[in-house]
Amino acid sequence: MPRPISVTISVSALAHNLAVVRDHLRQAAAAASAADGTQWVAPSIWAVIKAHGYGHGTAQGVQGFAQADGLAMLDLAEAIECRESGWAGPILLLEGVFEPADLDLADRYRLSSVVHCREQLDMLAHARPDRPLDVYVKLNSGMNRLGFAPDAFRAAHARALDLRKQGILRGVGRMTHFASADAPAGVAAPMAVFQRVAGDLPGPVSVSNSAATLRYPRIALARPGEESWVRPGICLYGASPFADADAASFGLQPAMSLRSRIIATQDLRAGDAVGYSALFTADAPMRVGVVACGYADGYPRHAGTGTPVVVAGTRTRVLGRVSMDMLAVDLTPVPAAGIGAPVSLWGADGPSVDEVAQAAGTIGYELLCALAQRVPVRTIA
Ligand SMILES: *Cc1c(COP(=O)(O)O)cnc(C)c1O
């Protein structure tokens, strides 16, 4: 019998979360139209499924986001997997191409790509695609990760328009990415840079990760006939981009549930310790459960005593240091739980992945993406 750990991916939760985001944008468009007396329309949605759908699986992402307007990722192999599994809509490579041969794949599989540097424009200038390619020229609006600096952007965009004249390109869009949309700094400063540098240029626009989509939906609204796209990722998986607001408060549902079982129990006396380095010591007699889940499954080793966990439907806490294959939990609030008792590490009937991440000093994104290969995956409708 395999270890009792498994992860369940809910395709309907992915679809639900996409619908929640769509609804949120439509409501923002309706509110803005009513306030101004002019028409605003909701943007299209690139569902971001990079990193194998944030650890949920590329195939599961393609299924769950069937109603998305496009899929965005950065690995060419994942993009091709989406195409080959039947996704016929737009696909956007968020980091663009890495070498000239990638442009042949972009042509063959109809992949749109970001152009964030001069070298990518040079590659395009030498490309001879069978059909012209679609690109987004990326502005570095202050994050200083990818993109043309504000004083170089317009020349880069003009070069892209020139490549369109030559028949190498078809669509030439503009995009930027926000560094602090989840924080008090918000999006005002980078949006001001974007508007100043690229606001008057033609073509589609793409701004807004999950945090900006949820908190500042109005910045991505379009006028009728204009093309605007948001790029939510984490919220589509039912986790929160914010430290100060949980996913449930937006009506999002966790799509990944990590579950296991208790495989041993121990009765501690006062003064007995648990696990490596004896990080937890009982101050009174207590029962401890040993769960088949450790850091080799993707559970964070930095999650210490007090990290929330649910045993047989009751919320309790992790004790001591997480091992490679096991962790210990406090059975005080669940005296009836013994070997075989179900344990929810995170997800639908457990704590949220964001709570576990916070206890471990990280964010839900990292835990979802770091789910280990060895954990058996069950996909449910
Ligand atoms: C990852 C990513 C996103 C999505 O970010 P979330 O915070 O997960 O919503 C959007 N745009 C780009 C360029 C990204 O790399």
Using brief descriptors, characterize the structure shown:
alpha/beta; 2 domains; binds pyridoxal-5'-phosphate; single chain; eight-stranded parallel β-barrel; Lyase, Ornithine Decarboxylase, Chain A, domain 1; elongated; 381 residues; six-stranded antiparallel β-barrel
Overview of this protein structure:
The longest helix has 26 residues. With 381 residues, this protein is an alpha/beta fold. The chain is built from eleven helices and 18 strands. Helix 6 runs parallel beside helix 7 and helix 7 crosses helix 8. It folds into two domains: 235 residues, Alpha-Beta Barrel (TIM Barrel); 124 residues, Lyase, Ornithine Decarboxylase, Chain A, domain 1 (Beta Barrel). The model has no long low-confidence stretch (mean pLDDT 98). The radius of gyration is 24 Å and the shape is elongated. Helices cover 29% and strands 23% of the residues. The strands form three sheets. Strands 2-3-4-5-6-7-8-9 form an eight-stranded parallel β-barrel, surrounded by four helices. It has a six-stranded antiparallel β-barrel with strand order 10-13-16-15-14-17. It has a two-stranded antiparallel ribbon with strand order 11-12. The chain starts with 5 loop residues before the first strand and ends with a strand. Bound molecules: pyridoxal-5'-phosphate. Pyridoxal-5'-phosphate binds next to loops. Its EC number is 5.1.1.1. It comes from Bordetella genomosp. 8. GO terms for molecular function: alanine racemase activity; pyridoxal phosphate binding. Catalyzes the interconversion of L-alanine and D-alanine. May also act on other amino acids. It holds the Pfam family Ala_racemase_N.
